[in-house]
Amino acid sequence: MKISDICKLVEDFASSAYQESYDNARLICGNPQAEVLGVLITLDCTEEVIEEAVEKGCNLVIAHHPIVFKGLKSLTGANYVERTVIKAIQKNVAIYAVHTNLDNVYYGVSHNLATRLGLQNVRILQPKAHTLEKLVVFCPLSHSLQVREALHAAGAGQIGNYKNCSFRSKGLGTFQPNEQANPFIGQAGGGLEEVEEERIEVIYPAHLQAQVLAAMRAAHPYEEVAYYVHRLENYNQEVGSGAIGELENALPPVDFLQYVKNKLPVSVIRYTHTHKTQIRRVAVCGGSGAFLIHTARRQGADAYITADVKYHEFFDAEGEMMLLDIGHYESEVHTKELIYAYLSSKIRNIALCISEISTNPINYF
Ligand SMILES: [Zn+2]
Ligand SMILES: [Zn+2]
Fold this sequence. Notes:
This protein is of the alpha/beta class. It has helices at 3-13, 47-55, 80-90, 100-104, 109-116, 144-153, 209-219, 253-263, 293-298, 311-315, 328-332, 335-346; strands at 27-29, 38-42, 60-63, 94-97, 120-129, 132-140, 167-175, 193-205, 227-231, 235-251, 270-271, 279-288, 303-307, 322-325, 351-354. α2 (47-55) links the parallel β2 and β3. α1 packs across α12 (335-346) and α6 runs antiparallel to α7 (209-219). The structure holds zinc ion (2 copies).
């Protein structure tokens, strides 16, 4: 397998189309055509991680956090970012980052955190809008099944736990071919044709548009296919930030703190008091999730677990909800296992390793 094949596999799970605009989730260095010898999975890519990759015989590091985030104007080794990239290039180790795209997919970082906490009925805390499109295509009855099958194979019509979803209605299509036409029905320069057609409607993730339209054109018998593409306002329940679910058994706040410590590798929790006596509904967001405090409250969370909360942001919980800051590293370190579990279900003959280095720069005294 080539490095590009592994990147493609990761993007099948967490499309790069779902990364935030400020992000840099991609192959950061390395030759995409190089053969993969082994893969090392880490939360952060540091010089020590590159050394670990070399020791373990891995020439691809998959990291959650992109080592190059803002762009590099020089490569002189002046800081840890430049030194890490230089070392990676010298040692022939490629670096690939799957970042906010992995935060934003349903089975991503926050779902994984929710699962580790034993939450049930997990939903996305803040679903994203404008990630779905609808295709309407008109097709003669004879080829309707063929066109629908091609659309579904290209990824259209998947909604939640349902696949092959479409809507069809019958009607009459009319057209008149000119002298240059090569019509499927009727003749060039012929008269007005009237054909019984089906209007087929399917929904698909917007980033699949090119492949869905290509599949439609390939399967459709007409020279000129009549179709519309609509960008939908709908919120996509499978793409967005954070996760929310319920504990099987509600816990008093103090017991909940201990519960979190038992479930996650956390030694210190910064938290706010709540006037609620029982914690049942819990929202989570791996990494810097203070931007979801209001959303978590609005969704009726009794507790919200995230990281990087600032002093004034703690006040925003207003006693309505327990706000827990467990640390950025602690809230995302399990992402290594998430990537490992996914890739090991797809790859058989390449060594996959989880980095044993704690890259957390923060210590607690
Ligand atoms: Zn993250
Ligand atoms: Zn993070």
